[in-house]
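Quick check before the chapter quiz. The format below is the same one you will see on the exam, so make sure you can read both the input and the output lines.
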Amino acid sequence: MRLAAGLALLLLGLLAWLLGAHLKALRFFDRPTLARSRLFDPLLGLLRWTLTLAGLALVGLASRRALVAVVLALALLWGYRSYIRSAAFQRRLLRRDFESLKREHPEAAEREIFCRLVYRRHPRWGVELIEMMVADNPDLESLARMMAKMEKGFRGFRPGGG
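Here is the expected output.
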């Protein structure tokens, strides 16, 4: 019974993590009214950590092997998420898409193709921001690095715009 309850709490915690990521990706005024509150994000953070840790504790009380399996699965998921958000992976995706667009539009300048690549992925960033990014990052490697930073969010920029 403890194992089932622990897995259920863990699942609810993971769903809370997904909800938080989804809401942060929305623009501020596209978020539900409740999610616009100043306290919503900290309370959701507390809820997701509480559910996740309580689920892990119950799984650990039920079975050490199950705890190791769950922690290993979570670590693998976290590693996969980190890898697909990395600049190296983004660079590989951009290179593939760049070569595809170059074949489709051989007459287009490299800068124009870079703008199309970024706009395809993030149309909400706006044409002016994308053009500034391409101007500041004229090669594919630096553009991929900047996109990875912006997608993760860094000081001075929040991907959700809120």
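If your answer matched, good. The mean pLDDT is 88.
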